[in-house]
Amino acid sequence: MSPKYKRILLKLSGEALLGDDPFGISRQTIQAIAAEIALVARMGVEIGVVIGGGNIFRGVTPAATGMDRATADYMGMLATVMNALALQDAMRQAGLACRVQSALNIEQIVEPYIRAKAIRYLEEGKVVVFAAGTGNPFFTTDTAAALRGAEIGAEIVLKATKVDGVYSADPKQDPAAKRYARISFDEAIVRNLKVMDATALTLCRDQNLPINVFSIFKKDALCRVVMGEDEGTLVHV
Question: Quick one: pLDDT band at residue 151, thresholds 50, 70, 90?
């Protein structure tokens, strides 16, 4: 059985790298995530990754209170570069060829984002990690995932979270909350289901780019999503 998708954009939150740690990067967790990515890459799937920085710094957290918002957002972008380098190293140890491209120019450390080059890397079977969000303040890494997914011609955006899909309510607070197997973009926006921020959702909807929300902590969940199985929640036009 072959994968349903040939090229995907995986959105990883910075918080996913915490594991059980209160701050920073859990080595055990990032190695487990790299192993999940390697499993899918070896099936012949081309993988782009957008990574957040919330485990280190986010522009909208209490730590940024009183700061100029643009300055705080740039700090958050730099945090994503640190996470991208850590993920690249973990994937190298897992036997994967990986390139990091940054929307901010830090050429001594990572390549600048060049769309044509990123697509060429994907076609060569390399994993490409997109760091520094969109390179602009006031935009989230969710929006960066939607943007990069559209730019590289991904067939789907896979949003890896701590929960196994989109629910009618917070499943931790409401035991009766139900998981949606499928939901439309318009429903997700109207019901304010927090799939992604409104800008990212609207961009994906307008580009007919579906989103699947799933738990990165469920073993082989990424593989099941790529195979088209009922895993997580599919958000579609």
Answer: very high
What's the Cα-to-Cα distance from 46 to each of 56, 110, 116, 198, 205, rounded to whole Å? Answer: 28, 20, 15, 27, 22
Q: What is the 3-state secondary structure (H, E, C) of the chain?
A: CCCCCCEEEEEECHHHHCCCCCCCCCHHHHHHHHHHHHHHHCCCCEEEEEECCCCCCCCCCHHHCCCCHHHHHHHHHHHHHHHHHHHHHHHHHCCCCEEEEECCCCCCCCEECCHHHHHHHHHCCCEEEEECCCCCCCCCHHHHHHHHHHHCCCCEEEEEECCCCEECCCCCCCCCCCEECEEEHHHHHHCCCCCCCHHHHHHHHHCCCCEEEEECCCCCHHHHHHCCCCCCEEEEC
| pLDDT reported for residue 29 | 94
59: CATH: 3.40.1160.10
The answer to whether residue 189 sits within a structural domain is yes
pLDDT at residue 58, as a whole number: 77
Domain residue limits at 76? 7-236
Distances (CA, A) of 74 to 80, 92, 151, 223: 10, 27, 22, 33
Give the tokens for residue 115.
Answer: 């769309």
Please provide residue 47's backbone torsions phi and psi, each rounded to the nearest 5 degrees: -125, 120
Q: What is the pLDDT of residue 168?
A: 86
Residue 79 lies inside a defined structural domain of this protein: yes
Assigned token pair, 91: 């994937």
Does residue 92 lie in a domain region?
yes
